[in-house]
Write a structure and sequence with these properties.
By secondary structure, the protein is α+β, with helices and mostly antiparallel strands. The chain has one domain: paralog of FGE (formylglycine-generating enzyme) (Alpha-Beta Complex), CATH 3.90.1580. About 15% of the residues lie in helices and about 15% in strands. The protein contains five helices and 13 strands. The longest helix is centred in the first third of the chain and has 11 residues. It starts with a helix and ends with a strand.
Length: about 350
């Protein structure tokens, strides 16, 4: 947790500048002769599917995207992951409520910040809360996310739009206002873990090779929206062309190839890895297929050198083709582990053995 200015600066740089409209993804370099190429493993799981999970067979794939506006997702490089189980959907409010009832867990957004962690911040401003989307009434420049985000005292997973809001009718919506540590705690309780960034992207691709979206090459094929993302002029008005102007129930859109829902849009999803913008360059420089990469050993973001961050993936209902089009497969997000927001959730995975 941070005071308003610091928190908003730390969390939302994942969506930095207005972005060009999506263009076809350039093909990555060919594999070096004699090296492994893209493939899907044929080995099946060793047991029955855990409740609410699907089998992701693993294999080798081209990870990342060559889109010029997404420098931290380049170069595209070959990665191999083993098979694993993954939650079909993002963790819902019903799921998270069971965890809290069983454990008494208090999320970071519900805890009073420790003044020792915030020298110089007036103690009376250190109150529990989280970051809430607050659309402006008039057009604003898109280089400063603080113009449409605010720190909302009392916002939490129980009160997703502020202290007066409730979860009534939102049981099947993804839980939001969860920090990375909250997601890790839930996953451990459920006998799971957070996915690595490589596992997450392999699963999101659904067996397709180098398409920009989990369902293919077009954002809304045949004029039909396949994900909960922003339509209209950002950040003033979401027209709700896809049927939603905030989070959507987790099975509202078609599943992708492996039977997973909302791998693009709806809410960002925490991954296990630390974030570095140069990590893909490090892997590609090795000149070989990266096997089950776990992310860098540390975190560095040149935009905020003193703040460590974890990777998040998938974009959210606030992403559009004019700003933060990070629902594109291969693109990356980042966030301070103890921060949360109204468009950030997660899902769990379980290793094969």
């Amino acid at each position: 947790m941070r005071n308003e200015v610091v928190l908003l600066g730390a969390l939302f740089v994942a969506c930095e500048r207005p972005q060009a409209s999506p263009v076809p993804n350039p093909a990555p370099p060919l594999a070096t002769p004699g090296t492994e190429g893209p493939r899907i493993n044929t080995e099946g799981p060793s047991g029955p599917a855990p409740d609410g999970m699907v089998w992701i067979p693993g294999g080798t794939f081209w990870m990342g995207t060559e889109r010029p506006e997404m420098g931290d997702a380049r170069p595209v490089h070959l990665v191999s992951v083993d098979g694993f189980w993954m939650d079909k959907t993002e963790v819902t409010n019903v799921d998270f409520a069971r965890f809290v009832k069983a454990t008494g867990y208090l999320t970071i957004a519900e805890r009073t910040p420790n003044p020792k962690d915030f020298p110089g911040v007036p103690p009376d401003t250190l109150v529990p809360g989280s970051a809430l989307f607050a659309p402006p009434h008039d057009p604003v420049p898109l280089h400063d996310h603080r113009l449409w985000w605010r720190y909302e005292p009392g916002a939490s997973w129980r009160h997703p739009e502020g202290p007066r809001s409730r979860l009534t009718g939102r049981g099947r919506h993804p839980v939001v206002h969860v920090a990375w540590a909250d997601a890790v705690a839930y996953a451990a309780w459920a006998g799971k873990r957070l996915p690595t960034e490589a596992e997450w992207e392999f699963a999101a691709r659904g067996g397709k090779d180098r398409t920009p979206y989990a369902w293919g090459d077009a954002l809304n094929p045949g004029g039909r929206w396949r994900a909960n993302v922003w339509q209209g002029r950002f950040p003033i008005l979401d027209t709700g062309g896809d049927g939603y102007r905030s989070t959507a129930p987790v099975t509202s859109f078609p599943a992708e190839g492996y039977g997973l829902f909302d791998m693009s849009g709806n809410v960002w999803e925490w991954c296990a890895d630390w974030y570095r913008p140069d990590y893909y360059q490090t892997l590609a420089a090795l000149g070989e297929v990266s096997k089950n990469p776990q992310g860098p050993a540390d975190s560095f973001d040149p935009a905020e050198p003193g703040i460590r961050k974890r990777v998040n993936r998938g974009g959210s209902w606030l992403c559009s083709d004019h700003y933060c089009s990070r629902y594109v497969l291969g693109s990356r997000g980042k966030g301070e582990p103890d921060s949360a927001s109204s468009n950030l959730g997660f899902r769990g995975v379980r290793s094969a053995r």
